[in-house]
Q: What sequence folds into this?
């Protein structure tokens, strides 16, 4: 895992990942959030357990995404960890039992207050529906990533 960007003022970080399974991806991203102090040590296990029950993969086109998140009790501070995979990893599709999608970009949410979750998710869905934006993210261009992440309200 390679940290590309960390902006504590804007409450986000971006990491480049290499993993074989969705759970490896989730562990690595959770570890990044933990190292930055955004989440508690128990966050990693909680996000994996939630992903098993409520999958977060989204088929969005050429570049597919996942938006994993878990309950605020595992969170110290609100943040988003952007994960960019060197090769896609299979996730189950949100709300579609048994359906799978190969994911290249993840937005792992660290939500401190449940009432903030829907606004953040709605904003991210807008980003995820724009393949041009996702291509900029996937290119690992730090300037573009910073600009996109700066525009999000966390």
A:
């Amino acid at each position: 895992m390679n940290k590309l960007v960390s902006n504590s003022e804007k409450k986000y970080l971006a990491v480049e990942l290499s993993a074989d399974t969705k759970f490896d991806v989730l562990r690595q991203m959770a570890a990044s959030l933990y190292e930055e102090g955004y989440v508690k040590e128990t966050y990693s296990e909680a996000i994996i357990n939630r992903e098993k029950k409520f999958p977060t993969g989204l088929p969005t086109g050429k570049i597919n995404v996942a938006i994993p998140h878990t309950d605020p009790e595992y969170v110290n501070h609100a943040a988003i960890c952007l994960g960019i995979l060197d090769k896609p990893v299979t996730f189950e599709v949100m709300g579609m039992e048994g359906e799978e999608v190969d994911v290249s970009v993840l937005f792992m949410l660290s939500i401190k207050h449940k009432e903030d979750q829907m606004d953040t998710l709605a904003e991210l869905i807008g980003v995820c529906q724009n393949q041009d934006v996702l291509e900029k993210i996937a290119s690992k261009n730090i300037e573009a990533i910073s600009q996109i992440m700066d525009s999000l309200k966390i």
In short: The helical segments are 22-35, 43-53, 114-128, 131-138, 142-150.
